[in-house]
Amino acid sequence: MAETATTQAPRAASAAPEPALPPTLRRNAPLVPTDSAASRSLAAVIAILTFLAALCAGAAEIVASSASQWQGAVTQEATIQVRPGPGRDLDADIARAEAIAKAEPGIAATRVFSKAEAERLLEPWLGAGLDLSDLPVPRLITLKLADSPVPDLKHLRGTLAAAMPGVASLDDHALWLQRLSTMANTFVGVGIGIVALVLVATGLAVAFATRGAMAGNKEVVEVLHFVGADDDFIARAFQRRFFGLGLRGGVIGAGLALAAFGLAGLVARAWRSGPAGEEIEALFGAFHIGWRGYASVLLIGVIASVVTGIVSRLTVRRFLA
Amino acid sequence: MGERAKTGSLLSGAEEPVVQFENVGMRYGLGPEVLSDVSFRIQPRSFQFLTGPSGAGKTTLLRLILLSVRPTRGLVSVFGEEVSGISSEALTGLRRRMGVVFQDFRLLDHLTTYENVALPLRVQGRAETSYRAEVVELLRWVGLGERMHVLPPLLSGGEKQRAAIARALIARPELLLADEPTGNVDPGLGRRLLRLFVELNKLGTSVIIATHDYGLMDLVDARRMVLGQGRLQIEG
Q1: Could you tell me which CATH class the domain B2-97+173-235 is placed in?
Q2: What is the distance between the alpha carbons of residues B88 and B97, in angstroms, rounded to a whole number?
Q3: A107-131 tens-digit pLDDT
Q4: Residue B191 contacts residue B203 (beta carbons within 8 Å)
Q5: Distance (Å, rounded) from C-alpha B40 to C-alpha B57?
Q6: Which residues of chain A have a CB within 8 Å of the CB of B122?
Q7: How far is B236 from chain A, CA to nearest CA, in Å?
Q8: Please, which residues bridge with residue B233 across strands?
Q9: Which residue is closest to A320 within chain B, CA to CA?
Q10: Which of B201, B228, B194 is nearest to B43 (CA)?
Q11: What residues does each domain of chain B span?
């Protein structure tokens, strides 16, 4: 730079001083006009679609993580219920049922609920401070299941039913929790489907908007062709403009979705003291989408912008061809 | 290119023509023929007027040279290349060797005068700093030094005309096409612009000026290509 300055100095001194370039001279404005009402509408559409897709992804993520917790819990426990009957020694029945369970391969541990513990389980329904000694309260044995060998619960259920008919029965919770997790998986699948649909809708909206922009800027495209621009140059000019719009829409949509999840988390925390809050927490945990949820929301914002750029480029190339 | 070098000679007649039409016919859709059996050659460094009444097909003929439409029949060659079935890359390459001044200027309203004139260099992918001096010099030469930051809607008719001409000249084209370049300006400015084209021609550019201004044509002793009812006659 210093060298250039010294070589230019004498020339500037000898030649008549040229008027300087206006400092405000714009030199590289985008070739495709920006900031029209149509671009603002498109950015808004992309923002709304990104927001909806991100909400879906976040909700699916909450359900998926809850479902995996449920599944983790269900695969590790089963319960034997021993009912008292007239003329039967309950403690002997419990010992016998426990022995049968222990004999079964794949049962890692057993724990017998004491009479006091069994009675406490009834407290939510009957209230505290009652004398339940006269009531025939069933007793529970929880079985901790091993990962291997995999316990044959069907066989255990058959053995119990044969040895102690009408007295001991096995409840492995698997059936209803399996239904719940099937439902959760369905929900996740539907969520992914909706995200995909919303992204396709974004792509189509961008394709329409690009065609509109091409038609609206027909003159610009024609002049660019005449001054020697190739199709790729023109496609890049449009792609740059639409990627900018997509990025703006994607950032706004993803930002709003993150804010919505933050707000929902706060509201859920405020409600947690009430009975409704406990149920919400039992279902969804702390209404927290976790780092994976935040990452997928941001990813959707990025994907929406990239889809916008690519779709506009392809649309322009097809339009020009 | 190699062929051109071989046939290159000091005699302009021996050089490969810049534009060559052979029995060209042109119709739009199922309409009547706008041009019929048009044959001519544009030699390197030549200067010619294209004239004829309105609707005679001047603009269509220019569009054929510009490769924005293809002939219905006949052969069109530009810079030695036959244009039917030309690839889009080759088309871009040919267009970069031409400059064109449209009757309605076709300046881009959202770009400044500077950006409009720099456009042919910008679309070649050149950095702005590499052509800034050239563009500014040309703008000053056509008298738009003080107007380079202005958007076209704020330019007068004559200023737009000069900006359009500067844009056509900035990439030093081998062929310049001008459609009614003096149609929107007063006779004084029209004569000055004509002198600009003659100067350019002396520097080696082939020039075709479409006009129906006989007063203007009388100022230069040049070949006249006269279109009438779709047929071409060469005078001079």
Answers
A1: alpha beta
A2: 15
A3: 888 888 888 888 888 887 877 777 7
A4: no
A5: 15
A6: 28, 31
A7: 30
A8: B226
A9: B88
A10: B201
A11: 2-97+173-235, 109-171
